[in-house]
Write a structure and sequence with these properties.
Strand content: 5-15%
Helix content: 55-70%
Distance between the termini: 96 Å
Number of strands: 6
Radius of gyration: 29 Å
Number of helices: 10
Structural class: alpha+beta
Shape: flat
Largest sheet: 6 strands, mixed
Length: 341
């Protein structure tokens, strides 16, 4: 019996030592990650300040000059809510810094992120606008005077960073928080006072990150449809609407098809290389479009042309389109949308 008790005591002592050593390692990693969070946030806020002083404010002043090289709308498009992000992150930094300066094994930072999580949703609008911001900047840089002005601003800050480098920083910010909080939570034991707040903050910020990514995907999909629609001739109802996106596209002779998530758009290539036109022919609501695919496949089988996609020809595309339609919407009715020009 004494031998058994001794073995059990030794085993418990060994396990307690392992737990202690692991917590000691975790505590050291928590301290390192906390310092990294504050240092990273400090650099980020300084860069936001630098961009605001060196680019945003001078460009706003330029819009008020006698012969401005850009408009107030251009500045709003380029920067969107950049200054609002600056204010928000400066507040976050000021809340985090004293926590880390007074760091201890039981110190908390999860509650700071949890409190700020809802405010971080303002990043959604910035990320959605980012592509429009870059396009506006590229358009303005075609003007040599504007480009020279930006180059002069670049030189003043004596850095390898330029305006596009500053503008992309907020796009990368929320995913960065997700990684840092995940690392902190990984090394926080469940009975630590910071654990629950860290877990909730991480979940809320991951939801924001997913929402931002979804909004960005929708914005990119909409931009693609708007660009496609802008190249079309003929009469048609506007089909470039939010929530609609392209699944795949392909061409059969002079006919081009775009399969969207709820619509099949059919256009016709005409004219010579010099007078090339893309003319709208019809739009079919899914799943009725399967019938149109079948008719076009029969047309090809009857010998009316052959171009294809890859090595499989148009029949491969029609099969893919029909399969995609069936898998998403199943059988059933549907109705025409739009019509022949």
């Amino acid at each position: 019996v004494r031998s058994v008790v001794l073995v059990q005591s030794l085993w418990r002592a060994k396990m307690a030592k392992k737990v202690f050593q692991k917590r000691e390692r975790d505590a050291n990693i928590r301290a390192r990650v906390a310092n990294e969070i504050v240092e990273n946030e400090d650099v980020y806020v300084k860069n936001l300040s630098l961009c605001t002083r060196n680019y945003y404010e001078p460009l706003v002043a330029e819009t008020r000059s006698k012969r401005p090289l850009l408009s107030a709308d251009d500045v709003r498009t380029i920067f969107n809510n950049y200054t609002q992000l600056h204010t928000l992150n400066n507040t976050l930094l000021e809340d985090l810094r004293p926590r880390v300066q007074q760091w201890s094994v039981w110190q908390k930072i999860g509650d700071v992120f949890l409190r700020m999580a809802d405010f971080l949703k303002v990043y959604t609008g910035y990320v959605e606008n980012y592509d429009a911001s870059q396009k506006a900047l590229q358009r303005l840089k075609q003007n040599k005077k504007f480009n020279d002005m930006l180059t002069s601003m670049d030189r003043r800050i004596k850095s390898h960073l330029d305006l596009p480098s500053f503008l992309i920083m907020p796009v990368q910010r929320i995913p960065r928080y997700c990684l840092l909080l995940a690392e902190m939570l990984k090394h926080t034991w469940p009975d630590h006072p910071d654990y629950d707040d860290l877990e909730r903050a991480k979940m809320k910020i991951e939801e924001i990150a997913e929402h931002i990514n979804e909004q960005k995907r929708e914005a990119e999909a909409l931009a693609e449809l708007i660009e496609f629609q802008s190249r079309l001739c003929g009469k048609f109802t506007d089909f470039a609407i939010r929530g609609r996106y392209k699944i795949l596209d392909g061409r059969f002779d002079d006919v081009e098809l775009w399969l969207l998530n709820d619509l099949l758009v059919c256009v016709h290539h005409s004219g010579t290389a010099a007078t090339k036109q893309l003319r709208f022919r019809a739009a079919y609501e899914l799943p009725k479009c399967e019938l149109q695919l079948e008719l076009l496949s029969r047309r090809r089988a009857a010998g009316h042309g052959g171009g294809g996609i890859g090595g499989g020809g148009f029949s491969t595309m029609s099969s893919a389109l029909a399969t995609a339609t069936a898998s998403m919407f199943g059988g059933g009715g549907g109705g025409g949308s739009g019509g022949h020009d």
